[in-house]
Amino acid sequence: MNSTPHIDRLPLVTILVVCLLSFGGVVAVRGIGGFENLELAVYDWFMRANLSAKKADPRIVIVEITEADIQELGRWPLTDEVAARLLERLLAGRPRVVGFDIFRDIRVPPGTTRLNRLLRKHRQIIGVMKFGDGGVAPPPVLVGTDQVGFNDVVVDPGGIVRRGLLYLDDGKKVAAAISLQLAQRYLATKGIFPRPDAKNPNCLRLGATTFCPFEADDGGYVKADARGYQYLLDFGGSRGPFSSCTLKELLSGNLDPEKFKDKIVLVGVTAPSVKDLFYTPYSRGIVGGGRQSVSGVVMHARMVSQLLRLGFGESRPIRTLNNLQELGWMLFWSLVGGVIGFRLRSPGFFSIYAAGGCLLLGLVAYVAFDAGWWIPVVPPVAGFLVSAAMVTAYMSNQEKQSRAVLMHLFSRHVSPEVAASIWRQRDQFLTGDGRPRSRKMTVTVLFSDLKGFTSISEKLSPQALIDWLNSYMEAMADLVMQYGGVVDDYAGDGIKANFGVPLPRDRAEEIGDDARRAVACALAMGKKMEELNRRWRETGLPTGRGRVGICTGPVVAGAVGSPKRLKYTTVGDTVNSAARLESYRRDDLDENSCWRILIGDSTRKYLDEGYRLRFVGKVRVKGKQQAIAIYQVLGRGSDESDDRL
Fold first, then answer.
1. Whole-model pTM?
2. Whole-angstrom Cα distance, residue 187 to residue 192?
3. Parallel/antiparallel/unpaired status of strands 60-65 and 264-269
4. Which of 4, 41, 206, 387 is the right S-S partner for 337, CB 3.0 to 4.6 Å?
5. Tens of pLDDT along 501-533?
6. Which of 3.30.230.10, 3.30.750.24, 2.40.40.10, 3.30.70.1230 would CATH assign to domain 414-643?
């Protein structure tokens, strides 16, 4: 009995092991990048559905050099003369800063002197260079000044831009991105300058916002290229196009100069023939009238917008969990899947609960994303589903085995209602290894036996004897089940039945009900014996006479035997007493009766006055130290058939 709690914990331990194995498998798959593409796809979907995304930043204006502009000019690249005229028109509108996102590493006369003089004089003009992949030099007149920024873009496998750059270095020199150069010049007019964070000098502080550099395994990435100072783009300026104009419109002189006043102006090429195009998370959906890619100048405008919002405290950087937090998050959902599998148990409802769990996880992740946190979705979903599936399969298999054990033990010996009740209460009835739980119970035990069976067996052929005995056993076993008892054992011509098992019945009224049902069953067995005798006499078969002993009291009930051959039975002094009552003066039967029922005082006290009893005496039966009071049950009420018992 002391080992029961330990056995009960075995399924929980197994389920925990299954969850941990699922978690370990998910961590291993994630570690080799197995979920990265799916995780980034979810990130893109969250980005497109992000409710907090704002409309295009009104502080930014783009001057687009379109395909029509290039056709109008009749050549590419722009001459220095056209570039100088473009910048002069812009400067007349008094912008805060101008980003010239067109390479000018070589002269394109005419107008070179005019352009160089313009670049040297106006420090709010920022030229571009390319830092990586061989590099492209900045305009020669700006070399060594702070009027240069690189326009390199980090592109993920698959061609989508999700990260921005602030700084790059090659071990010898450090360069700033054009987006940072433009943003910090605008912020400087408000007294906001980039500086190291006071608590973590490795992180950049821009105004009231601190954001640390992107790491190789942040968010859904696995071993990503994290060189330079990178950050996650939120594309907050993606709701609609930026304010813009074409080169032709600008040079025509018909634009209101106020359009550029105090704005950040970016000049760049949007003509498809130049092939300065990039894909974003929005490229997976229909954005901007079906435009599936954006030009480089628009991409840099979005980066500038994000830096402005960070600097002014209008938004927060996208944050990610650290490694330990991610592991805890995945472990949590693996355990949740195990709990659902344990509670669910039925494969039939698995798809419903699995879909509900995934929906809940996705909703939590989306709400967190809308609040600025990118937490993993695909690995915890995988852990949740694998754990739920494996635990459901395990529990389903355990239940099949448990049900097989129960049906093997009881299906032939109890009514369908009792069998269903046993299955419904299986958790308190079965131990962890699927065996019925051994427990002490108060039960009414019934023993029945035939008198003179040996002489009967000598008169019949083997097959006739078995048929005769089976007709008797089948009729009596049906009555036991009909009265709510459980046939415990058959021994030759004898039957042992228990009333009050296998589910515990602890209240006095329940114990009394078991005793009354056992006595009522014994009376019904006597009537059935008379009916069988009439049938046997008509067919020339021997008739039978039987004895019944009934006793109520404590027993130990449980399954005995090997795993391949289990039997649910009761043992204890009450069982022995019932057997002794059945065999008491076994040959002392009334010649006018075919059935004798003896009960102990422990059973008699539960019977009402409707039963007719005869006190046999207080006798010491075999195997008992103390004498017990024995009563013979003669019948119930005035039923004439009972009088013949």
1. 0.67
2. 5
3. parallel
4. 387
5. 877 788 899 999 999 999 999 999 999 999 999
6. 3.30.70.1230
